[in-house]
Structure to design on (746 residues):
């Protein structure tokens, strides 16, 4: 942007689609640059906004408000990133300001607060002998000369503040606190090595398998040619996909371009970052929600200033201001955690393809169990498929033994899914001094509590789910909203003492394992055992050092971890996610079982899997046991194709939430009626509902939904856009979310 510019467009991180025009005073003109943060007057406040271009508005400079200040900071947005955010807002039918608020780290968007400022007259008066009126000001105000008005109101009260203002001792001003400029080190200080610096000794790359070499050469050739090139790296578990990522990242850096690596789980970022540092040297940044807000803001600035060559991030990393982007890698691209469900629903995997296309970059989607959408795109030639069909050590995939829980007796006193075949296999594995992973996708000790006298089930008052019993904390907790209450000795309905705790969670499994294997070193890995910072990393590090014999946990142990010492994986009950009222339930169960089975036998052929299930004939169970992804895809696609569910059709979900069930229901019915009137006789779009969501209440809010389905995107988007334009999707006091390409219908 040339300078000076006196009228500029400013985007403000609010749920609005409008850009706002401001005048730039002459002394700030040299600082005008796309992406810079500015402080502007807005609705009687001072707010942060971001310059996104020169204004084309037909306005005189005297007709618009003036920018108050441009802090001396690097730009928060690159021109390419701003173009991407505009595209994303249009695709997901979300206000542009809301997309900006979603993309930017906390701390970049600030608005002013009223401050009480001690005037020179006030300083003279209170620095003298005293106040004859009996009015005394807080020491904090006298010491610093300013104080937030709300804090002062608590100390003095409104009447005394007004008196101080009348006497010219205080003035009230709207002020905005600027974020600090100095960068603070993260908890992984070695990652802050500047871009271009190399560590003294780097890890020697291993020899590539023939399939890895083909993948690296193909992707490198596309990168050298230039332009947008999407790839699916379809490799079985343990096939060495990470090594392919490292090679193509190194090639990207040698060409003077930068790389972004998206991973599904926060736990993967530190271990992946350490591996990248050992191979690539410095210039690696982490960006995920496990960092504090100030650390995220620091990393954002460091990335934007060019001090980083490689960014490893969770889904929000798709927004980082990485200039000269040459490569985006999406590891475990099938993982549902890449989809944000609330506020601004986006899928980071899909947006990786979109951003790479806008910036002319290569994008690699890696998985042993690709999402159906990605697999169909590869079949149709939209994405080039590269296969890694065998493990990097040359061995085969682990043998899977299915145990039918309908006919196999469960051992132990607590019914924790410990069967004789599983116990025997664990004993044999421990005797060889090898490691065991046991998977159960349910947290807590018991999954529900019920009175045996009157049948009362303890449920969350905020959500439509039963409370989970956590024995050590003596608490009943909701795993949706976090509600917790003390586990009562008596039924609140009939005062009976006959409280029954049923179901099995990971805490119960851990306790039962300690009873069955008293000499084994046992650890649990789930959200409850890793609440404190660094606990997750510490557990994984102890397991890596073989200080843990048996690791039991939820899907956190599935997420791409590479531990060569695991020779037995036990799936305690493979059906828990199978019968959810969601068309993706079967696909996700297959993916989860295949991924957890792939944790074993990664360094040898000694791996073994015990898959316990109540439904051994189900297609997801059978094909997961055979590691047969393509056979599963062909089978599960039949019904999806017939019903026009993705990837053979397209969906937009409109979800209505509110505190009053009657209002939510009425609004949902109104939206359904308006949609059908707009649709008329057009048969290209199907409207399902309105109906209560399968989880009809969550976090204290009632939920209804309307589902729109069509073979192609065009008519679907036009119908929902028409609903937005006529105001049907806005209601005071209700939250209405438009979810384009929903991944969860719950």
């Amino acid at each position: 942007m040339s300078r000076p510019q006196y009228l500029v467009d400013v985007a403000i991180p609010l749920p609005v689609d409008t850009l706002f025009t401001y005048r730039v005073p002459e002394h700030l003109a040299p600082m005008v640059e796309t992406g810079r943060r500015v402080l502007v007057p807005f609705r009687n406040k001072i707010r942060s906004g971001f310059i996104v271009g020169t204004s084309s508005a037909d306005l005189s400079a005297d007709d618009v408000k003036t920018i108050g200040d441009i802090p001396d900071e690097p730009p928060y947005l690159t021109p390419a990133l701003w173009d991407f955010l505009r595209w994303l807002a249009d695709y997901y039918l979300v206000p542009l300001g809301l997309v900006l608020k979603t993309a930017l780290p906390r701390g970049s968007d600030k608005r002013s607060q009223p401050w009480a400022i001690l005037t020179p007259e006030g300083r003279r008066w209170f620095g003298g002998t005293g106040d004859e009126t009996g009015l005394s000001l807080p020491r904090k105000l006298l010491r610093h000369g300013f104080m937030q008005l709300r804090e002062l109101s608590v100390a003095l009260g409104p009447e005394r503040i007004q008196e101080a203002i009348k006497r010219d001792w205080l003035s009230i001003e709207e002020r905005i606190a600027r974020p600090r400029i100095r960068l603070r080190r993260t908890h992984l200080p070695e990652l802050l090595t500047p871009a271009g610096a190399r560590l003294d000794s780097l890890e020697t790359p291993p020899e590539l398998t023939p399939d890895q070499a083909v993948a690296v050469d193909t992707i490198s050739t596309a990168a050298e040619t230039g332009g947008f090139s999407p790839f699916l790296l379809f490799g079985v578990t343990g096939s060495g996909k990470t090594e392919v990522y490292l090679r193509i990242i190194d090639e990207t850096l040698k060409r003077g371009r930068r790389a972004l690596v998206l991973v599904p789980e926060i736990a993967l970022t530190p271990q992946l970052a350490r591996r990248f540092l050992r191979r690539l040297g410095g210039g690696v940044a982490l960006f995920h929600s496990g960092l504090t807000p100030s650390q995220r803001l620091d990393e954002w600035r460091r990335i934007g200033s060019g001090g980083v060559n490689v960014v490893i991030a969770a889904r929000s990393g798709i927004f980082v201001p990485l200039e000269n982007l040459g490569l985006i890698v999406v590891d475990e691209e099938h993982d549902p955690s890449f989809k944000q469900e609330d506020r601004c629903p986006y899928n980071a995997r899909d947006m990786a393809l979109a951003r790479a296309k806008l910036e002319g970059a290569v994008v690699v989607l890696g998985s042993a169990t690709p999402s159906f959408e990605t697999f169909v795109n590869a079949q149709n030639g939209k994405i080039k498929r590269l296969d890694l069909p065998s493990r990097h050590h040359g061995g085969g995939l682990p043998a899977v033994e299915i145990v039918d829980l309908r006919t196999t007796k469960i051992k132990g006193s607590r019914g924790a899914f410990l069967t004789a075949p599983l116990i025997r296999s664990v004993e044999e594995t421990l005797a060889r001094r090898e490691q065991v992973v046991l998977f159960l996708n349910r947290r807590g000790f018991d999954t529900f509590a019920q009175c045996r006298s009157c049948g009362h089930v303890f449920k969350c008052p905020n959500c439509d789910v039963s409370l989970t019993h956590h024995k050590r904390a003596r608490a009943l907790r909701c795993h949706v909203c976090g509600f917790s209450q003390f586990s009562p000795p008596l039924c609140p309905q009939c005062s009976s003492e006959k409280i029954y705790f049923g179901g099995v969670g990971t805490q119960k499994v851990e306790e039962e394992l300690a009873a069955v294997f008293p000499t084994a070193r046992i650890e649990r890995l789930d959200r409850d055992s890793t609440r404190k910072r660094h606990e997750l990393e510490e557990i994984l590090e102890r397991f890596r050092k073989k200080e843990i014999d048996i690791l039991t946990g939820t899907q956190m142990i599935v997420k791409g971890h590479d531990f060569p010492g695991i020779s037995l994986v036990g799936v305690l009950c493979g059906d828990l996610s199978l019968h959810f009222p969601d068309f993706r339930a079967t696909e996700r169960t297959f993916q989860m079982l295949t991924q957890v089975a792939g944790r074993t036998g990664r360094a040898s052929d000694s791996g073994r899997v015990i898959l316990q299930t109540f439904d051994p004939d189900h297609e997801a169970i059978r094909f997961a046991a055979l590691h047969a992804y393509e056979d599963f895809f062909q089978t599960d696609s039949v019904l999806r194709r017939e019903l026009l569910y993705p990837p053979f059709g397209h969906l937009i979900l409109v979800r209505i939430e509110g505190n009053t069930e009657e209002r939510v229901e009425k609004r949902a019915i109104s939206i359904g009626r308006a949609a059908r009137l707009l649709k008329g006789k057009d048969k290209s779009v199907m409207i399902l509902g309105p109906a209560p969501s399968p989880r009809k209440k969550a976090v204290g809010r009632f939920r209804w939904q309307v589902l729109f389905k069509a073979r192609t995107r065009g008519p679907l988007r036009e119908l929902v856009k028409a609903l937005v334009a006529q105001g049907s999707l806005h209601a005071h006091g209700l939250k209405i979310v438009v979810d384009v390409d929903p991944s969860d219908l719950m």
Remarks:
- Confidence is low (pLDDT under 50) at residues 128-133, 178-197.
- The chain has 20 helices and 29 strands.
- The first helix runs from residue 79 to 91.
- The chain has six domains: 7-103, 113-175, 189-388, 399-446+503-639, 448-498, 650-740.
